[in-house]
Design a protein that fits this description.
The protein is built from 9 helices and 23 strands. It has 519 residues and is an alpha+beta fold. It has 4 domains: 42 residues; 120 residues, Beta Barrel (L,D-transpeptidase catalytic domain-like), CATH 2.40.440; 120 residues; 179 residues, no CATH class. The strands form 5 sheets. Strands 11, 12, 13, 14, 15, 17, 18 and 20 form an 8-stranded mixed sheet that branches. Strands 1-4-3-2-10-5-21 form a 7-stranded mixed sheet, with no helix packed on it. The chain starts with a helix and ends in a 12-residue tail after the last strand. InterPro entries: LD-transpeptidase, LD_TPept_cat_dom, Transpep_catalytic_dom, UCP029342. It comes from Bradyrhizobium symbiodeficiens.
């Protein structure tokens, strides 16, 4: 500072005795020195890349600090990688919240920013927020993505996986060791039995599916056979009606006969017509009896098909749960919707391209004590196995209630816990938040939840992901892997692309032209 002041004083002296041109050049020199000093100070504050001096395990989560412009990756024992980042600039801010990696692309090109190169891209929302390599000026400068150093992003790419947790925090935060009776306590015997149980239930589901298909086929055949009954009966009824009319006509002829010969001829005709009418009546009665038998068969095969379908549904549900028991489970509890949501990765490629399918079969109401009071946003993660079950950590990115108190206020349905808790594995998580799920949460994501009190410009400039309206498929009928995964979007999710206005978020699509740049 002393040097800068000396320079400034010298410049004043020069300004008194030198021509205006030289004075201007001196002023430019001063500004250059000041700018360079400010830039140097900014660069000095930029975090440095770092690697933990130990054997690193599989990464479990990444925490991006918007405040410090830094990302840190953690395994079961602590941080393993750290690097500076550049998040979204003013008006295009990276949304703070809870995410997971949903797609990876080694050599990604932007569809929004004139084919801009975004190497080692790891997407966390389908509307375009991602982690990727890019230039780092030392401050927030992206269009909403999280830029990482090129070499760091390249080295990281093969270490991460679809479904890995990504937490974007407005401030600095770290995982803290945590324990609570409401967290999953797996049962070793249940985990050991899970593979065999999955195989057994999958076989039963296959059998139930085959039986349901055969019952459906039998019902269809019976219905097809019975479809011709109305026409056949109508034809026999018409034949009987004609025979009855002819019989009535012969009675009139007998009554009108003028001679014995005419009467004898009429009576002979009546005998023939009476036989015909009797035959027609017998044929109609037999056909009606047969038709009723076929109708009963149709009803029976239809009921059998319904029963087989119910058994198939139950068998498929049990088999699906058994298969998913081998995957980490993620739970999201929203104070806004008073609901509990469960996600598990099926590792089945999404049918419409990009990413993998997440099972969404559990969504239930949850009871929250004092629901009018905030909970905050807390991410509880099973970091590793322990002698008592699982070793947990907590990351808080929004203060409402203290993490322990927040868990105490929630009553989770016991049947849900019994369904997913006994086989919970490391990397399982429970997220508690005041926020609803973002509309970016769908069958190709784990959870996407953004903090509504933080800037979300990075969402505003992106077109929302189209709603998922896909027919249900249990996976057994159509050669799948047995996971029931498609669903209609939850009507209580947080809408995408919020623009804050007078304390509330409104929604719009940006009309500004996209400049060629980095995300």
């Amino acid at each position: 500072m002393k040097d800068l002041m000396t320079t400034a004083q010298s410049s004043t002296a020069i300004r008194r005795c030198r021509p205006p041109g030289r004075v201007a050049l001196a002023a430019v020199a001063v500004l250059t020195v000041l700018t360079a000093s400010a830039e140097a100070a900014k660069q000095a504050r930029q975090p440095a890349e770092a690697v933990a001096q130990r054997q690193a395990g599989e990464p479990i989560m990444a925490i991006v600090s918007i405040k410090s412009q830094q990302v840190t990756f953690y395994d079961a024992d602590g941080w393993i990688l750290r690097a500076p980042v550049s998040t979204g600039t003013t008006g295009r801010e990276t949304p703070a919240g809870v995410f997971a990696i949903v797609e990876k692309d080694k050599d990604h090109r932007s569809t929004m920013y004139d084919d801009a190169w975004m190497p080692n891209m790891q997407r966390i929302t389908w509307n375009g927020i991602a982690l990727h390599g890019g230039p780092l000026p030392g401050y927030a400068a992206s269009h909403g993505c999280v830029r990482m150093p090129f070499g760091f992003a390249e080295g990281l790419f093969d270490k991460t996986y679809i479904g890995m947790r990504v937490i974007i925090s407005p401030h600095d935060t770290v995982p803290t060791e945590f324990s609570h009776p409401s967290l999953f306590v797996p049962k070793p015997e249940a985990i050991a039995a899970a593979p065999g149980r999955a195989d057994k239930l999958s076989a039963e589901a296959e059998q139930a599916t085959q039986a349901a298909a055969e019952a459906k086929k039998a019902a269809a055949a019976a219905a097809k056979e019975a479809a011709s009954l109305p026409a056949s009966l109508r034809k026999l009824e018409q034949q009987k009606a004609r025979a009855d009319a002819e019989l009535a006509f012969t009675d009139k002829k007998i009554a009108a006969a003028k001679s014995d010969q005419a009467r004898a001829q009429a009576e002979e005709l009546k005998l023939k017509v009476a036989t015909k009418a009797a035959d027609a009546a017998s044929a109609l009665d037999a056909a009606k009896a047969a038709a009723q038998s076929k109708r009963d068969a149709v009803a029976a095969t239809k009921d059998a098909a319904k029963a087989a379908a119910v058994l198939k549904t139950e068998a498929v549900k049990a088999a699906t749960d058994a298969k998913l028991a081998g995957e980490p489970v993620s739970v999201y509890i929203s104070r806004s919707t008073q609901k509990l949501y469960v996600r598990r990765n099926t590792h089945k490629p999404a049918p419409d391209g990009g990413g993998e399918v997440f099972d969404t079969s559990i969504e239930v109401p949850v009871t929250i004590r004092n629901p009018e009071q905030p909970l905050g946003t807390h991410i509880f993660t099973a970091m590793a196995k322990s002698d008592t079950g699982l070793r947990w950590s907590v990351v808080t990115i929004e203060n409402g209630d203290e993490a322990r108190n927040a868990l105490d206020r929630i009553t989770i349905p016991q049947d849900v816990w019994d369904r997913i808790g006994p086989t919970a594995l490391p990397r399982s998580s429970i997220i508690i938040s005041d926020e609803p799920l973002s509309a970016e949460t769908n069958y190709r994501t784990e959870f996407v939840a953004v903090l509504s009190d933080q800037p979300q410009g990075g969402f505003i400039t992106r077109k929302p992901t189209a709603p998922a309206m896909i027919a249900s498929d249990d996976g057994w009928d159509n050669g799948g892997n047995g996971f029931g995964f498609f669903y209609q979007r939850d009507p209580y999710v947080q809408q995408a692309n919020p623009r804050r206005q007078r304390g509330q978020y409104q929604y719009y699509q940006s009309t500004q032209p996209m400049q060629r740049s980095w995300w």
